[in-house]
Design brief:
The chain is α+β, with helices and mostly antiparallel strands. It has one domain: D-amino Acid Aminotransferase, Chain A, domain 2 (Alpha-Beta Barrel), CATH 3.20.10. The protein is 30% helix and 29% strand. The protein is built from 3 helices and 6 strands; from the N terminus they run βαβαββββα. The chain has helices at 17-28, 40-45, 77-83; strands at residues 3-6, 32-35, 50-53, 57-60, 63-66, 69-72. The strands form 3 sheets. It has a two-stranded parallel sheet. The protein has a two-stranded antiparallel ribbon with strand order 3-4. Strands 5-6 form a two-stranded antiparallel sheet. A hairpin with a 2-residue loop joins strand 5 (63-66) and strand 6 (69-72). The chain is globular, with a radius of gyration of 13 Å.
Length: 84
Amino acid sequence: GNVISTPSIKGTILPGITRKSIIDVARSQGFEVEERLVSVDELVEADEVFCTGTAVVVSPVGSVTYHGKKYVILISEDSLYLVH
């Protein structure tokens, strides 16, 4: 869908410049951005997952390991193009 969910900055998430830029660009491109608690179940069911940070800028997530189980998340060619 056209919804991007991100944890709010009320927890352990820092209010970084890269994060803010991605949220601003996503909204300008017509995406709805939800700042809320995101569960592991949502991560493994998502169409795509990415992380932002100062060192890596934007990086696709290929898998999530939770309680000893590895969940693979498919990475589209479009995602890789945006990262490079």
